[in-house]
């Protein structure tokens, strides 16, 4: 069962990498949409995705998550095929379908891992597949680069057909394990802390609310890499822009190399909390490195500034891995199993909120906020260590491990991010 889930997720990430490469260019060049119209459509899609994650995640708490996930994958496959023949505005509408389905499937995925994968293997399963999914994403991006090099409408349409097939296969693989997941749910205790807690009471637990708020803060790390670094380097530093690509490569390699070893060492609530706290500290270091890199660029030289950006990228990837493993471990431990879908949907909203807020926030930092904005953000990351400690003190630590450090257990491979 775990191997099929892993294969489905890796297949999905090949399709995701392909989509990341070609979708925007197709909309602008082949469908002749103006940047303003496309931007408006993408914003609408992001807002709808923000709502779809928790809503679909809640459905996964009531119905078979494998069936819902497969249906969403097949919906995305049909929508992707529709891009090959749809007129411009219809294609823009299909973008919303794709984003809503993607956010909903991400919530269901995390819930499926919590229910179908044993407690002692969850974090390692997610870690291994996240590492492998980065490799799969690179494959998809490489295929997309070939499409962009060809640049013809036929090449774009062929890429959408390949993507649709990958999405269909991913859905079919998850569909195949639907009965086994139901059996696994029946054999697993209903809750992490108390057997009678209902999904409606999820947000009454202050630990859950605090952890979700922290997750929304930590979600800024992704746009710090993809949005803030290009904006800051372009506006505040006199260095070659290729350093942005170097930062992205450092992030990808860091996830592939470090994700599994870090997850293997997180086996208790205390260790999960410590991992999240260290991640927050590394995020704070990354935030402070932004103004420091600008100062080095101005006063010392290009080499020192490039070194500072490299340190910044390393701090971001290490912080991202530590906070992801720690927060995921805590979330699985404090949320009742029957609420995994709803909790993962709400937690995943942080990514969407960060994606919506980051361009304006980091644009302001680059244009006017300057070092002060980064220092305030760094301070927020440092302060976030305290509520993580509060969560840990109020969560039992005498539970079975949420990940494994037993090298004798078979490596059934893996899962991605969200």
From TrEMBL:
Topology in the lipid bilayer: Multi-pass membrane protein
Residue spans crossing the bilayer: 37-59, 66-86, 92-115, 127-150, 156-175, 208-233, 239-263, 275-296, 302-325, 346-367, 373-391
Gene3D superfamilies per record: MFS general substrate transporter like domains
Main subcellular localisation: membrane
Keyword terms: Cell membrane, Membrane, Transmembrane, Transmembrane helix, Transport
Membrane as UniProt keyword: yes
Keyword Transmembrane: yes
Protein's cellular compartments: Cell membrane
Name of this protein: MFS transporter
Organism of origin: Streptomyces chisholmiae
Taxonomy of the source species: Bacteria, Bacillati, Actinomycetota, Actinomycetes, Kitasatosporales
